[in-house]
Amino acid sequence: MVKVIIDDIEVEVEPGTTILNAARMIGGDVVPPAMCYYSKLQGSGGKCRTCLVEVAAGSAADPRPMPKLVASCSTPVMDGMIVKNKTSERVYDNRAAVTEFLLINHPLDCPICDQAGECHLQDLGFEHGKEGTRYEEKRRTFDPIDIGDKIKLHMNRCILCYRCVYVANQLTDKRVHGVMHRGDHAEISTYIEQAIDNDFSGNVIDVCPVGALTDKTFRFKSRVWFLKPMEASCECTKCAGKAVVWMFGDEIYRVTGRKDRYGEIEDIDGKTAWICNECRFDKKDKSMWNIAGPRVINRHSVISQNQYLVDERIESKKLTGK
Amino acid sequence: MGRKLLLEHANVPGIETFEVYRRNGGYRSVEKALKTMSPQNVVEEVQASGLRGRGGAGFPTGMKWSFLAKPEGVPRYLLCNADESEPGTFKDRYLMEKIPHLLIEGMITSSYALGCNQSYIYIRGEYMWVLEIVEKAIAEAYANGFLGKNILGSGYDLDLAICPGGGAYICGEETALIESLEGKRGNPRIKPPFPAVKGLWGCPTVVNNVESIAAVVPIVNDGGAEYAKIGIGKSTGTKLISACGNLVKPGVYEIELGLSVEEFIYSDEWCGGIANGKKIKACVPGGSSVPILPANLITKTAEGTDRLMTYESLAEGGFASGSMLGSGGFIVFDEDQCIVRNTWNFARFYAHESCGQCSPCREGTGWMEKVLRRLEYGQGHMHDIDLLAEINKKIEGNTICPLGDAAAWPVAAAIRHFREEFEWHVTHPDEAVKRNFGIASSHMPLV
């Protein structure tokens, strides 16, 4: 076990743990925001640069500070490392800059975006964004396209986190989904607008931190904060059948995976509970699900409003397993 | 005339063929290394030579080699980075085009030193004709027993393959090069792990510039200590400089490190001064990504000492009044050139070549390009200049790979040293559009 100090809080973690995961063990506002890192997807992270932190001392053996800010999601901790996140002005300054970079080409169409209320970029903008913009140029625009009959891609909203590419790579067998072009004209696309034809392709919607990939069976139906999330399960041959159904009255409006406070699909019985397309898109009738009860939503976001209160102590036990 | 170690025989007719190259003392280093030296000896010679990476960063090659992990039963790879795409740099092209066997000889000796049995030359896609020259030379080396199984009866096997890139600047970054070589999209990897531990196909890998690998040949031939005698301080040996811009004699020169910048620009032996009798305005001494120097800081440092062609002297004064030797792309501007247009041109290049993986570089380079374009075409505002300075400060150091820094430095330096010219573009928008600046004119927009 190695000891690391993050924002003056000491935590003991396994060797090889990243700074971000060590911070998540502490929880609260010590945790840097992460737009591209997704612990369930191998190789993700390092791209969005919102999780940059300052390393004030590299390790006990070599206590020199690191000259650059480091991406906490991809930097492993060392014994005796001292990390500054919320206690560092430099970190906040650069995080605000990254937020600005992410927003300059973003359409900010939250009022008509299905992701609003559970959007990580919205949260980031709320916490680190500035009022007004310094960007006077024309924004990069694309037409929305259909990826298959169930998924809509709004490239304008995309922040190129690559999460959906990893999903396509790791969950589906034939990859036809990736990034084309370079630089600020890079875009997510499927091979000649082909459908991702796979039982698990719908998970790209769950991993998308913004409203770039949306569920066509739910588009424009309701704002997410009007819906009541219910923990539900069903008998499914393809997936574990453990999902969250979002209800309005007796009607199921949409089905998603069970996401934790970082927007990541939870592990159930040691396996990430990705749900299949049939559960996600087709099971919209209450009789198809066993509804266990209200789902606790504990995200630092609009969607947590009017939800059942969460006992922080129970939550932290869940996270650390102690 | 200084000593020439790499280009000594470059102008011998037929040097690109094996016979002529061999007659001029070629492949001696392979014989010497394989027959009389252990791999460790070769590495020690390179360490003793003080050779610094010629690709731009100037990291000591010997030290890089010593970092290579050597686990049992795992192959190691040597990759030659011939993806020379920095604007203003064309030294590797010249070397490979003129004297391809020198690179192959260096590859064999270096691969032997590192214990690699398979090495690759990653060449940029635009250099297709150079690829053909090098490919022919590799075939000749195979035919003469310098490549393949059991080279010169020493029991050492080496296969050398050449791989063309698709023409992306980013593939010159070592981890992007590895990705590209593996057949993937050329996105830089997140480090650590470094290639010396986990590189090509997850195996320990060393990536070296063409010139660094070629320099191993004279180091092995004459000994590292002999090589270290050339140059000043930590800048040892000779360096290829590709001089371009408004010079009387632009071209590729091999200089001994430590030559004064004044002599290099004005002496008839080298560049021969500024073309058309004009005055020098600015100089980018190491390829487009290094900070630009104004006229008063080119031949003298801020302290008034002579500036020399060394890694240290060019960097003297830090970013405030210095620059970098970089890859040796020496670009000179005369008094009629427009710094704003030039800075925009560089920014345009980086915006086009950013891989789009990490947000500061993807969005920042595109943003800077657009603001500079507006300034150049007389649609800028005063606050745009500060905005540019602010943007590049936020890109620098926050990106996955050095491309973000490379895009930020030239803009930062241009604003630092030529701010009044940017301001002139704002206050004189009509003249900025109409003025004549040397070769290009507003009738020929760089779009």
Protein described:
The complex is a heterodimer of chains A (322) and B (447). Helices cover 19% and strands 21% of the residues of chain A. By secondary structure, chain A is an alpha+beta fold. Chain A has three domains: 2-97, Ubiquitin-like (UB roll) (Roll); 109-215, Alpha-Beta Plaits (2-Layer Sandwich), CATH 3.30.70; 224-320, no CATH class. Chain A has a five-stranded mixed beta sheet, sandwiched between helices. In chain A, strands 13-12-11-16 form a four-stranded antiparallel beta sheet. In chain A, strands 6-7-10 form a three-stranded antiparallel beta sheet, with no helix packed on it. In chain A, helix 2 crosses helix 3. Chain A is globular, with a radius of gyration of 20 Å. The model of chain A has no long low-confidence stretch (mean pLDDT 87). In chain B, 43% of the residues lie in helices and 13% in strands. Chain B has 18 helices and 13 strands. The model of chain B is unreliable at 438-447 (pLDDT under 50). Chain B has helices at 18-23, 28-36, 39-49, 61-66, 91-98, 100-114, 128-143, 174-181, 210-222, 224-228, 261-266, 311-315, 318-321, 339-353, 359-376, 382-395, 403-427, 429-434, and strands spanning 77-82, 118-123, 159-164, 205-209, 231-232, 235-236, 238-245, 251-256, 280-284, 293-294, 329-334, 436-437, 440-441. Chain B is α/β, with parallel strands linked by helices. Chain B folds into three domains: 18-229, Rossmann fold; 237-334, Ubiquitin-like (UB roll), CATH 3.10.20; 339-441, de novo design (two linked rop proteins) (Up-down Bundle), CATH 1.20.1440. In chain B, the strands form four sheets. In chain B, strands 8-7-11-9-10 form a five-stranded mixed beta sheet, covered by helices on one side. Classes of the chains: A alpha+beta (322), B alpha/beta (447).
